[in-house]
Design goal:
single chain, 451 residues, five-stranded mixed sheet, 18 strands, globular
C-alpha cells in the first residue's frame, strides 16, 4: 500500500496546505484516537488510552495543538499537553508516563511556515510503515465523537522540563562534570531553548547561548544546525571550547570545534564508534545512511567495525539497529541514535556522549577525528513533479550506471527522491574533486532531461 500522507518523517508540508491544515489535523487526531481505542478494547483489560503531545516553537502550533487535542478527546482519549519540548523529550515522556502514544507537532529544521506531525509508539519509537498505513486508512472513516461520559480529558504535564533534564543527565556517568568547559549553545529558536542550556549548566559548564529567543516565526532562521555560521563566529569570538547547534525540534545536533570548524553527524559517529569499540560499549554494526560519507565507511571498516547503510531517515536507521542488535547509528545531518541511552535520535544526549569522551580522554574534537579522511561529496537538487518516475527513466538509469562505474572503488554515485520536497537529490562523492564535479554534472543533466 502506498502512503498518501506520511513521508520520510511523519506528515509535513506548508501551513494551510491540504494536510497541514486545522481541519485535516483535527480529523487526524480523531482517526488516531479511535484506532487507539479499538486496540485497547481488543487487548482484554481495557482502559482509556492516553497520548502525550509536544511541539516546537512555531506560531502555527497553537492551532494544531488545539486541533489534535479536540480530535483525540472526541475519540475518547486522554491527552497530556507538554508545550514546547524537544522531539526526543516526547519520546522519553511517552514511555515514562506509560502513554499509549506520543505526538510531536514540528517540521524539524524547516522554516516557520512549514509544519508537520510525527507519531511515537508506546515504546517511544517512530512508527513503522505498517502502522502509518493503518492511520491513513483510519482517515477514510468519518469524524465521530464518543458518548459524553466517554470523552477524553486534557491537562498540562507536570514538570515536563524537569523530568526530561534529569533523563538527559542520566545518559552520562554519575559524577560526570563539565566544570572548566565553556560552551556556546545554539537552540535554533526552537524546542531546546529552555532545556538545552539548562542541562549543560547543571552539569557544570559555563554556557553562552544564541537562538534562544523564539517568537513563533524565527525558528531555524539563520541559526541552528542548518545555519551554523553564527555559532562558528561566536565560538571563535568568545574562545569557547565547543559549540553545540540543535535544530528546531532538538533531534539533530552539530558541533563546532574551538577553531570554528563544523563537525557533522558523520564526524560524531566516528568519534563514538572508535571510543565505544575500545571500551567494549559498541554492540552490533554501526548504521549510517545512503548519505553517510564514503570516508566514514572506509575508516570504520579499516578499524574492524561493521558499517551498514539504511535508507535516509532516522527511523530506518533505528529499524536496522534493532534488527541487528546495534546501539549506534545516525545521519550526517546530525540525527544520532545512541540506543543504549535513548529510544530515538536525541541531540542533547548525543552531544553529551561526545563531551563525555572529550572529558574522559582529555582530547579535543580534532584529535578524536584523527584517522577519518572524508572524501568530497556534493549533492544537487533537481526539481520535478514526480521524483520517483524521474529516477526510473531509462536514460537516468543508464546515466546512473555509468556514474557508478566511473567512481567504483573510489566513491559512490546515487539518486534519491526526496521524502519532503518535489526534488531528486543527485549525490556523487570521491576523493578526486574534479571527478565528483564532472560525474555530478553528467548525472544531473540526465535527470533534468527526464524531467
Amino acid at each position: 500500500m502506498s502512503r498518501k500522507y506520511f513521508g520520510t518523517d511523519g506528515i509535513r508540508g506548508r501551513v494551510g496546505s491540504a494536510t497541514i491544515s486545522a481541519d485535516f489535523v483535527l480529523r487526524l487526531g480523531n482517526a488516531y484516537g479511535h484506532a487507539l481505542r479499538e486496540r485497547a478494547q481488543a487487548g482484554g483489560v481495557w482502559r482509556k488510552p492516553m497520548v502525550v503531545i509536544g511541539k516546537d516553537t512555531r506560531i502555527s502550533n497553537y492551532m494544531f495543538e488545539a486541533a489534535l487535542e479536540a480530535g483525540l478527546v472526541a475519540a475518547g482519549v486522554d491527552v497530556q499537553l507538554m508545550g514546547p519540548m524537544p522531539t526526543p523529550a516526547v519520546s522519553h515522556l511517552t514511555r515514562s508516563l506509560r502513554a499509549d502514544g506520543g505526538i510531536v507537532i514540528s517540521a524539524s529544521h524547516n522554516p516557520h511556515y512549514d509544519n508537520g506531525i510525527k507519531f511515537f509508539s508506546a515504546a517511544g519509537e517512530k512508527l513503522d510503515d505498517k502502522t502509518e498505513e493503518a492511520i491513513e486508512a483510519a482517515l477514510d472513516v468519518p469524524f465521530s465523537t464518543v458518548e459524553s461520559e466517554q470523552l477524553g480529558r486534557a491537562e498540562r504535564t507536570r514538570d515536563a522540563i524537569g523530568r526530561y533534564v534529569e533523563a538527559c543527565k542520566s545518559a552520562v556517568p554519575k559524577g560526570f562534570d563539565l566544570g572548566g568547559m565553556r560552551l556556546v549553545v545554539d537552540c535554533a529558536n526552537g524546542a531546546t531553548y529552555q532545556i538545552g542550556p539548562l542541562v549543560f549548566r547543571e552539569l557544570g559548564a559555563r554556557v553562552d547561548t544564541i537562538g534562544d529567543q523564539p517568537n513563533g516565526t524565527n525558528i531555524n532562521a539563520g541559526v541552528g544546525s542548518t545555519h551554523p555560521e553564527a555559532l562558528c563566529a561566536r565560538v571563535v569570538e568568545t574562545g569557547a571550547d565547543l559549540g553545540i547547534a540543535f535544530d528546531g525540534d532538538g533531534d539533530r545536533v552539530m558541533l563546532v570545534d574551538g577553531a570554528g570548524n563544523v563537525r557533522d553527524g558523520d564526524d560524531l559517529i566516528y568519534i563514538l564508534a572508535r571510543d565505544w569499540q575500545a571500551s567494549g560499549r559498541l554492540q552490533g554494526p554501526v548504521v549510517g545512511t545512503l548519505m553517510s560519507n564514503f570516508g566514514l565507511e572506509q575508516a570504520l571498516t579499516a578499524a574492524g567495525i561493521d558499517f551498514r547503510r539504511a535508507n535516509v531517515g532516522d527511523r530506518y536507521v533505528h529499524r536496522m539497529l534493532i534488527d541487528n542488535d546495534g546501539v549506534l547509528g545516525g545521519e550526517a545531518s546530525g540525527h544520532i541514535l545512541c540506543l543504549d541511552r535513548s529510544a530515538t535520535g536525541d541531540g542533547i544526549v548525543a552531544a553529551l556522549q561526545v563531551l563525555e569522551v572529550m572529558k574522559r580522554t582529555g582530547r579535543s574534537l580534532a584529535e578524536l577525528l584523527e584517522g577519518l579522511q572524508r572524501v568530497a561529496q556534493k549533492t544537487r537538487n533537481v526539481r520535478c513533479a514526480d521524483a520517483k518516475r524521474a529516477v526510473a527513466d531509462p536514460g537516468v538509469v543508464a546515466a546512473l550506471e555509468k556514474a557508478q562505474a566511473d567512481v567504483k572503488g573510489r566513491g559512490r554515485a546515487f539518486l534519491r527522491p526526496s521524502g519532503t520536497e518535489p526534488v531528486v537529490r543527485v549525490t556523487v562523492e570521491a576523493a578526486d574533486p574534479a571527478l565528483v564535479d564532472s560525474t555530478l554534472d553528467a548525472l544531473a543533466r540526465a535527470v533534468e532531461a527526464a524531467v
